[in-house]
Amino acid sequence: MPENQPTSSLSDHFEPRIVAFFCNWCTYLAADLAGTSRMKYAPNARVIRVMCSGRVDPQFVLDAFAHGADGVFIGGCHPGDCHYQEGNYKALRRYHLLKRVLKEMGIEEERFRLEWISAAEGDRVRSTINDMVEKVRALGPLDWGLREEEVLAEEAAA
Amino acid sequence: MELRRTVKFEADRDPEFVRWISQTVGGEKIRHCLQCGLCSGTCPLSLYMDYTPRRLMLLSREGFKEEVLGSASIWLCTSCYACMVECPKEINITHVMYALKERAIAEGRYPKRFAIPVMAEQFSRMVRREGRITESWLILKVFLRTAIWRLLGMSSLGWKLFRTGRMGLGKERIAARKDIAVLLDSVATTRKELAL
Amino acid sequence: MKYAYYPGCSLKGTGRAYEESLLAMFRALDIELEEIRDWNCCGATTYMSVDELICYALAARNLALAAREHLDIIAPCAACYLVLNKTQRYIRDYPKIKLVVERALGQIGLTYSEAVRVRHPLEVLLNDVGLRAITERALRPLKGLKVAPYYGCQIVRPYATFDDQHNPTSMDRVLAACGAKIVHYPLKTRCCGGSQKGTLPEIGLDLIRYLLSEAKKNGAEVIATVCPLCQFNLECFQRECGNGQPISMPILYFSQLVAWAMGAPARTIGIQRGLVPVESLLAEREIAYA
Amino acid sequence: MPEIRSSGNGSGRAPRRVGVYVCHCGTNIAGTVDVRSVAEYAATLPGVAVSREYKYMCSDPGQALIQQDIRDNNLECIVVASCSPLLHEPTFRRVLARSGINAFLLQMVNVREHVSWVHLDKKAATEKAKDLVRAAVRRVSLHKPLQKRRVPINPNVLVVGGGIAGIHAALTLADAGKQVYLVEREPTIGGHMAMFDKTFPTLDCAACILTPKMTAAGSHKNIRLWTYSEVAQVEGYVGNYKVKVRHKPRYVIDDLCIGCQECIAACVYKEGKTADEFNLGLSKRKPVYLPFPQAVPQKVVIDPEACIEFKSGKCKKTCVEACGERKAIDFHQKETMEEIEVGTIVLATGFRTFDAARNPYYGYGKYGNVYTSLEVERLINASGPTNGEIVLRDGSRPKAVGIIHCVGSRDANTNRWCSKVCCMYSLKLAHLIKERTGAEVYNFYIDMRTPGKGYEEFYDRLLDEGVHFIRGRVAEVSDWAIHPSEEGRLVIRAEDTLAGFVRRVPVDMVILSVGLEPQADAQEVRRMFNISCATEGWFLERHPKLAPVSTFTEGVYIAGACQGPKDIPDCVAQAGAAAAEALALIDAQFVELEPYTAYVLEEECSGCKSCLTACPYQAISFQHEKKKAVINEVLCKGCGTCVAGCPSGCIQQNFFEDQEIFEEIEGVLADA
Q1: What distance lies between CA D153 and its chain's CA centroid?
Q2: CA atoms of D228 and B101, how far apart (whole Å)
Q3: What pLDDT score does B141 carry?
Q4: Chain D contact for A89, CB < 8 A?
């Protein structure tokens, strides 16, 4: 099958900025594995290490969007594999709630993603980041602050 | 007996050929070949080949274009796909064979009067003209261009088929023959544009 | 039930008996086949070796024609069946092929659709009709006729779309449901040489000889096939194969056997088109029916 | 609109004096990231007092450099941009500690695994590195001084799996005076090795070297041997695991059975009727049986599936008579659970062999005389179904034998990996067959892999013995004869890739050298012990080179073929290593845990109790008098789920405080 190439310097116009929260026990290790096996992927993601995907507070995500992130990506252990038994389920529940909130705020769902990636799945880090970068690039910049004003303006008008 | 000096120089290799074969549809994994020979072992025709499928994979991957395109083996492949389903490295050998035939024909690199390429030519020509194949005519044309004498041997069979209504001289053709022409031209132009 | 029907070139020529019996068989099962209007050659394996891209475009035209009718395609010829399947897969897997094909079809006012399903009559018999229904309709059972089921290559390779790659049994089950006795046939998926018989006679002959003698050895009275080219190869060179006295082995399409079992008159299903007489074998079973 | 935390450096106070160190890691980082410009950029960031780049930060001079700066520029916290924190965070923490500042005032930036190794575009990679460094600088000045927690280590060890690896690990630990629980699921220990006849390349008999170790393990004063038992549940953490073990009913009372086997002789079944598991179904056994003569423990088992008493309750019970006064047989025995406490765990759960039926073209299960290599091990074994006679199903001796390598190995359609041991055991079988039957032996191989002490020499010996070696993966085994010499025999078809043509070799017996696979229940097991599996399902080591027997769960070690295909010497070596790792932990008596625990800001806690259910470890309790939640630091594992869940934001996590993470988020996003 056709290889999915690193999409870094593909287009020079808009480079999406992705903030990624990776679980210390699986996805962060997977990202390390991608490194040790020299896989190549888009340089748009900035990884922040947390001990468990369950540690990711919805406010982290909002804060990221508010400060110019075009996408947020949470990586946790596969269901049943959580190093802390069930943190990833908590993460999943919060993810779904937050997704709705973001929708109402007019943030496209491709911009917010939760993936289960085990320590052995370096290649999924590669493919997921590449895929997300492409999708977000297609959507264009978020500049949420601006949208906020729009929302307020609308409210005022109403 | 005659003694021949055999040595291969790096200059004999054609890097372009390697690049081409490993990018052609189905050939993506050819570099993974570990030369296990499962393809040759399972191939019903390998017994008759000058280079077994395994060796063709090797020679292609190394870029010995002359040997590959000059080999009779690529014309022996019947597309039975036995090699492809068992290949431990998921190389689409049958498709590699197609690609090699295509290249050989494109470069006019095949034994003249050798029935298979002639057959391929005639076949495609007939499809282009009529949109369908009429077996009787196809066979006729092929033999006329390769081995007329065999027609005599076949005549009794031909007669039987004729009698049982399985062969006639009526031609199968479709109404939208123009469409076929347009279709093929379009493919040709797109191919040029994208340099496929 | 209704399906789009893609005969392919051979079923209009050397394989006429296949078409006749297939239509009879489905008629007996109250299934309607609507021949795709103005279909064209799928390109077969031969065109593949001249120009693969063109081959995909040719096949795609037929898919697009059927898509307009929103019907599944029944493709009886093994080669057509594979080419149509393969075209769908490659259009799905290779963006560049998709592009080429979609453009080309656009030029002639057609649009490609993934929706249409390409199906083999055997698979339709098993999944849409069902063995019980077949047995119920088989009012003239084959009463233990010893059949070697020969699948050949292209309906099980490279894609095992509906049957086991190494030991397919769909035809075994369908014919057994019609009362036939299936004999052990280890070569059921071994290549018959395809067009090699025409192009490299000696080699083609070797492969054919193996297939025939193995069937004989295992006590088959008939070989059943699903492919016009296999049928042609196995039937037409039996004299050359048997060194000295010719091997005499009727080669029938599975659909001829099924249709016959469902009571279709021999002449309507191309029995008379065979080069090796099978009438006597069938006659033995006729009596009970009459 | 939800409230968005203010940006700027957290608490608002002036940033601490930060030192930034960017590592070249030779060319590993410097090759893709412009380290100089990263260091120069860092120097411009608020709070940064010193910023340097150096070839190898982790080297002694590199470490010295940091210590020096800390002293000279009285730095308060450090940022190191180098490799993954999982590799060198401990190293640099020690540097801080040595320099007299708290080890946790360090922030690592992963610019190797996450940047230089995964990007091609130098410009983009350098930009990314700068972003990450900026974030780290902003975050590090919020780090609080922390102390690691010390918890005592329970000196008892659990070893799971009684194969050669498990036995060796157990004996090593027991000899060191530790209490060991050895749990084996089968009725006897010994594992696969007990099934072999000889071992390569020395050809010493497996039983002769294994049985002494088995009996030693069975009788060692420090080993509690539990066969026919399985681990049911694991709780706790390093040094303090609580393990539940399930004892399956043997219907024979361990302490009373002396292994005289009179019951077996007396059984109403004169002949065995049940397929003998140990002989892979090549022979039959009775309902009451001993897996094999040298089984340890020497205690019989009753198979309720086969025993008449269990089926009808109407058996004469001649076995009970035979047992007489000892009264060892108990038809009413029930499954029992036992709970133990251990500090460390060694997993040696082994492998299973590839199911040859998955390669239908080799005719396994279709042709009687196609065997797997393991079945042949039993045929050759003197205590096997044929007492060591190598014979075909009809009892006759094979004149020609074909050995097919790589069955279920190196194949994208089944298993991609090389199973490592097959080449050598195939050579061994070839030798034994030639020696005992004089048959022609053909080896069909893809690549002959004999790396190991005396292995290549053994291969050489086989060549000298006149064994055939044909390089080619076999395409088909069939009974389809096209030559008189092939009639009534099995024909192996393969290309002789070195000769360059296809060969058909008629033989009487085919041996499929099946590869090694992870155990069927590897996934459940790894979940129970909270460790990871590599994609193929082998247990994942902490580091492929530097921590091959450790896992990502402290105190859980892996040994033998459960980690990947291995031969006996490698298994034993690894078992020793795992035992040593466990001992090191035990003898330290204490283990230090990361202080990433959560704590409650009492004054802000509204007492809503929602955190109580959030914690999977029941570490949070409610103080009724104060109406506040409180977290037990010992029980808390530091996942931070409660922190993210607390509605009033009054729970914080050490080293991962909300404000620190906000700083990092805003740091990576703040425009350079």
Answers
A1: 22
A2: 62
A3: 80
A4: no
B95 shares its domain with B127: no
CATH of the domain at D133: 3.40.50
Spatial CB neighbours of A138, under 8 Å, sequence gap ≥ 6: none
**Domain containing residue B73:** 12-106
Tokens of D233: 């549940």
Residues C264 and C208 grouped into a single domain = yes
The model's pTM is 0.84
Q: What is the pLDDT of residues B173-192, one digit of tens each?
A: 999 999 999 999 999 999 88
Cβ contacts of A1 on chain C, cutoff 8 Å: 93
Q: How far is B30 from chain D (nearest CA, A)?
A: 14
Provide mean pLDDT across the span C83-95.
Answer: 93
Output the CATH code of domain A14-157. 3.40.50
CB contacts of C214 in chain D (<8 Å) are 480
Q: Note whether D524 and D415 are within 8 A (CB).
A: no
* Helix, strand, coil percent values for chain D (each to nearest 5): 30, 25, 45
Identify the CA nearest to B71 among candidates B45, B89, B33.
B45
C210: Cβ contacts below 8 Å, ≥ 6 apart = C187, C190, D482
**Contact between residue D373 and residue D425 where contact means Cβ atoms under 8 Å apart:** yes
Contact assignment for D644 to A36 by CB distance below 8 Å? no
Chain C contact for D487 (CB, 8 A cutoff): no
What is the number of alpha carbons within 13 Å of residue B15 lying toward its C-beta? Answer: 2
D175 SS3 class? helix
| Structural domain containing residue C192 | 139-284
Rounded Cα gap, residues D62 and D405, in angstroms: 51
Question: Are the beta carbons of B41 and D472 separated by less than 8 Å?
Answer: yes
Report the domain count for chain D: 4
Q: ipTM value, please give it.
A: 0.82
Contact with chain C for residue A1, Cβ under 8 A: yes
CB atoms inside a 10 Å sphere around CB C185: 22
Q: List the beta strands (DSSP E) in D354-497.
A: 370-372, 400-407, 440-445, 468-471, 476-478, 490-496
Query: Same domain, yes or no, for C21 and C152?
Result: no
**Helices and strands counted in chain C (H then E):** 14, 8
In sequence order, the β-bridge partners of residue D510 are D370, D402
Pair C150, C275 in one domain: yes
Question: Each residue of B112-157: pLDDT tens digit?
Answer: 767 777 888 888 889 988 999 988 888 878 877 776 666 666 778 8
CA distance C108 to chain B (A): 6
State how far the alpha carbon of A73 is from the alpha carbons of A23, A76, C94, D114, D182, in Å.
11, 10, 29, 15, 44
D236: which residues sit within 8 A by CB, 6+ positions away?
D242
Burial of D25 (0-12, 13-18, 19+ CB in 10 A): buried
pLDDT tens for residues D444-471? 999 999 999 999 999 999 999 999 999 9
For the record, the structure tokens of A2 come out as 């056709």
Rounded-to-integer distance, Cα B11 and Cα D657, Å: 64
**Residue C217 maps to which CATH number?**
3.40.50.11810
C12 contacts chain B (CB < 8 A): yes
A-B contacts at Cβ under 8 angstroms: 3
Provide CB contacts within 8 A for B167, sequence distance 6+: B135, B136, B158, B161, C13, C14
Q: How are strands ordered across the β-sheet holding D400-407? A: D370-372, D509-514, D400-407, D440-445, D468-471
User: Residue B190: phi, psi to the nearest 5?
Assistant: -55, -45
